[in-house]
Amino acid sequence: MSLHKPPTLADKGLFIEKAYIAGHWQNSQSCRTFQVFDPATNEIIGECPECSVADLERAVSAASTALDFWRQYSGRERSLILRQWYELILENKDDIATLIVWENGKSYADAAGEVLFAASFLDWYSEEAARIYGDIIPHSNRDISVHVSKEPVGVCALITPWNYPAAMVTRKAAPALAAGCTVIIKTDGLTPYTANAIVKLGERAGVPSGVVNVITALEDTPRLGLAICKSEAIRKVSFTGSTRVGKILAENSGSTLKKLSLELGGNAPFIVYDDANMDTAVACCLKSKFKSSGQTCVCANRIYVQDAIFDAFVSRLAGEIANLQLGSGFNKQVDIGPLISQQAVAKVEEHIHDAVSKGARVVVGGTRSHLGPQFFEPTLLAGLDDDMKVASEETFGPLAGIFRFSTEIEVIRRANNTKVGLAAYIMTNDLGRAQRTSEQLRTGMVAINTAIISDAPVPFGGVKDSGLGREGGKYGLEEYLELKAVMTAKI
Question: What is the residue extent of each domain of the chain?
Answer without folding.
Answer: 12-264+466-486, 268-448
